[in-house]
Specification:
Blueprint: H1 12-33, H2 35-59, H3 64-76, E1 84-88, E2 105-117, E3 120-122, E4 125-127, E5 131-143
Antiparallel strand pairs: 1-2, 2-5, 3-4
Length: about 150
């Protein structure tokens, strides 16, 4: 009888199957991570709102100086200040601080236009898809301390 040789582990079929499985696993990981980019930008925006809230408490509302500081802080955390909209229910720019007395409710809102590429799988690669945008906003409600 002849000696029959069995295939050894490490055949080319095993390598190809491993590469295909690796591609699918990495694709799943890539798509699972995408929503965390938006969450990261929201957290950065929330941090800016919290620090600006302390400033508007002391000023009795939103001033031009505070608006500029907010835009600088937005840029410092890596966001584009031109995509941000800053609103407050009390504006202290008039120079008349009596308009906002101690205990007045203040609400600061920063809205940011978040743009991203919707990725898609093309063949054995991941391509950038359509550009999409959403508005994310963070706000804080506080009380005037001036």
């Amino acid at each position: 009888m002849k000696n029959v040789r069995l295939k050894k582990d490490g055949d080319i079929n095993v390598l190809i199957a491993t590469l295909i499985a690796f591609f699918f696993i990495m694709t799943l990981v890539y798509f699972a991570i995408q929503p965390f980019n938006k969450l990261g930008e929201y957290n950065e925006l929330q941090e800016v709102v919290r620090s600006a809230g302390l400033r508007i408490e002391a000023d009795g509302g939103l001033t031009n100086e505070t608006t500029q500081l907010i835009k600088q802080r937005i840029q410092a955390v890596g966001l584009d200040p031109s995509k941000a909209t800053i609103t407050c229910n009390q504006n202290a720019n008039s120079g008349i601080q009596e308009a906002t007395t101690f205990g007045t409710d203040l609400k600061l809102t920063i809205s940011y236009e978040y743009t991203y590429n919707s990725p898609k799988v093309v063949g054995f690669s991941i391509a950038a898809g359509d550009k999409k945008s959403e508005v994310i906003s963070a706000s804080i409600e506080t009380t005037s301390k001036n």
